Amino acid sequence: MNLRIPGPIPVPNNILEAMATPMINHRGLEFADLLKKVTAGLKQVFQTENDLYILTASGTGAMEASIVNTLSPGDNVLSASVGVFGDRFGDIASIYGAQVETIKSPAGKGIEPNTIRESLKKNPKIKAVLVVHNETSTGVTNPLPEIAKIVKNEFNKILLVDGISSVGSIPLKTDLLGCDVVATASQKGWMLPPGLAFLSFSQNAWEAHKISKMPKFYFDIANYEKYLKIKQPPFTPALSIMFSLDIALTQILDEGIENVFKRHFNIAEATRNGIENIGLELFADKNVTSNTVTSVKIPDNVDGKLLLSTMREKHNIILAGGQQELSGKIFRIGHLGLCTYEEINDVIEALKKSLPECKLAS
Amino acid sequence: MNLRIPGPIPVPNNILEAMATPMINHRGLEFADLLKKVTAGLKQVFQTENDLYILTASGTGAMEASIVNTLSPGDNVLSASVGVFGDRFGDIASIYGAQVETIKSPAGKGIEPNTIRESLKKNPKIKAVLVVHNETSTGVTNPLPEIAKIVKNEFNKILLVDGISSVGSIPLKTDLLGCDVVATASQKGWMLPPGLAFLSFSQNAWEAHKISKMPKFYFDIANYEKYLKIKQPPFTPALSIMFSLDIALTQILDEGIENVFKRHFNIAEATRNGIENIGLELFADKNVTSNTVTSVKIPDNVDGKLLLSTMREKHNIILAGGQQELSGKIFRIGHLGLCTYEEINDVIEALKKSLPECKLAS
User: Fold this and answer.
1) Cβ A23–B11 below 8 Å, yes or no?
2) Which of B3, B174, B230, B291 allows an S-S link to B48, with CB 3.0 to 4.6 Å?
């Protein structure tokens, strides 16, 4: 099975085997050592000296945590969305009572940084900006450095970043950019099964936490900080994924984080070239194209649903379809974590064979 | 290592090995089959025909979910607490804005059902009652059938039950008792690693959900229901634990749920007898003593901290200490899941040897 969706990703065997490690006491000495070690390793990959916490949750839980720990009902928030996950980020803030102003870019485009500048100029009451670094639904990587410069250097607002499908795969220098909260999840470039989420939390975010009035308990970062001081989790965590995280982090740090980024870029380039070589069109704009997930237009004369089922049934390759309004219009190829050129070549070859079989009757 | 804390528990080898199953598409056909199968199996163990959802979270996340899905800020809530987790249940409701009235029983005692009747009589505005079925911090199983009779039959209030360390180990007939929400977590009698939580949700709970105004997104049961209809999860779940859950459920249902309860009772009896035979005193009242965790008084002349470290270092046995105000006063022996008489005998023998070495200087 060649699982080529943008997470869960195929987990390398040695990391997968560690998932079967016997249980330990999550309030004991062995766990304390593990928690200390993986927290330090995660900070290196996040390129941060901010606090860092491990939640037992999907990435969406970490998105919610970033909001409820820094904001209050009634706060004005700017949400710059280019897809499903950007919309979700704003929705969560809105559900918790924030006044959300949304800048929406068309699918396949990135956020135009200047639109954020204009919005912040126009509405000085805006307290925080929500940005998805890598929009998994469209295969777009937003220009976070430019955005961060505006949000932090020009306006000094709280910057909350969904880095779920970018951290560890695409450069995201948390401290250099001044990101207050960065959220990510284990089933992406970390080469792990889903179930853990990671969250960096700046001093500035802590200042916001002090006056934050959104209700929270399971996701209250103060609970995690209180227990981290005694090297414990506040609540029983997904231990198995932490055992695997330990191994994955060692591998990532041994390879070197810059090399990991470079490897993701190279495999993404190979994917994009392969797609164009067989006459398909990339969906995302070239200047914002993602190095973790490639979105591809389904030609008008091709039955997209049939294409994905043919890829699955005849070639054992699992691709992701388009979400919501992009359903039937694009498909997506995930290449996060340890993805080989051979795996990508197999996808391209199989697409080449499958496309003619999936023509719509004209 | 003999891990004898009340969760995480030692996971049987065949279930542990399934944790290393390769990843699949959580929006694909294979997952749809898995979700359908384990949801049906969970309902059998919960003894319910109510809706049932799988959350990627610790048990505390499911406690929060039970509250935020059924209540609104300002709602009057009765919390009957006999320990740390009972307190937590009320705290969560209070943080989300409920008006919480607490009946607190002394540690080691169970809830006196009549106190609930009196409170509900006195305050007709109370909308929901929060009860921990098995209080892990004190080793007490509350008389849920009597409580449920009062809450549901006499007063028809919403009944939210923390069944984290009981469901699957101690009889809890969800439908027969009329429990509106029952929450539990994977690292208990389910014989699984931590990381998943399970939640049953009644029609009455759905009525409450319709008018519930507590904010929620990650824990919003409506998201889970919407996706369950197309046999998908709303958010990427902890797949590995679901693979293991499938095997664990098959084992539990093959053994027969009544036999599983009986087995837990027998091993708990053996533990209680063993403790008393070596001259130690049980902490919980006999009539409410738990079949998943046994709490034991630390004699006045024994150094409790030294006792636990001696058990760990000399005998490879991990016991749990007391939490909060019970720290140093009790220790706890977990016997959920597949626990053998031999494992319990080893604990008793090791305690017998260790106690004389841990005397306080008098």
Assistant:
1) yes
2) B174
Q: Are residues A114 and A40 in the same domain?
A: yes
Structure tokens at A204: 């500035």
CATH number at residue B156: 3.40.640.10
Residue A8 lies in a domain: no
pLDDT tens by residue, A7-51: 999 999 999 999 999 999 999 999 999 999 999 999 999 999 999
Using the beta-carbon criterion (under 8 Å), do B26 and A8 form an inter-chain contact? yes
Let me know if residue B1 belongs to a domain.
no
Q: What is the pLDDT of residues A84-122, one digit of tens each?
A: 999 999 999 999 999 999 999 999 999 999 999 999 999
CA atoms in the 13 A half-sphere facing the CB of B159: 28
Q: Look at residue A190 and tell me if it is in a domain.
A: yes
User: Is residue B230 classed exposed, middle or buried when 0-12, 13-18 and 19+ CB atoms within 10 A define those classes?
Assistant: exposed
**Angstroms from A176 CA to nearest CA on chain B:** 30
Q: Indicate whether B238 and B293 sit together in one domain.
A: no
Whole-angstrom distance, CA of residue B143 vs CA of residue B155: 17
Taking an 8 Å cut-off on Cβ atoms, the answer to whether A238 and B235 are in contact is: no
B291-324: b (≥16 Cβ within 10 Å) or e: bbbbbbbbeeebbbeebbebbbeebebbbbbbbe
The string of pLDDT tens digits covering residues B181-226 is 999 999 999 999 999 999 999 999 999 999 999 999 999 999 999 9
What is the domain count for chain B? Answer: 2
CATH number, domain with residue A262: 3.90.1150.10
ipTM exceeding 0.90? yes
- Angle separating helix axes A239-255 and B239-255, nearest 10 degrees: 150
* pTM score above 0.95: yes
Q: Which of B228, B254, B280 is the last residue of a domain?
A: B254
Residue B55 lies inside a defined structural domain of this protein: yes
Range of the structural domain that residue A206 is part of: 14-254
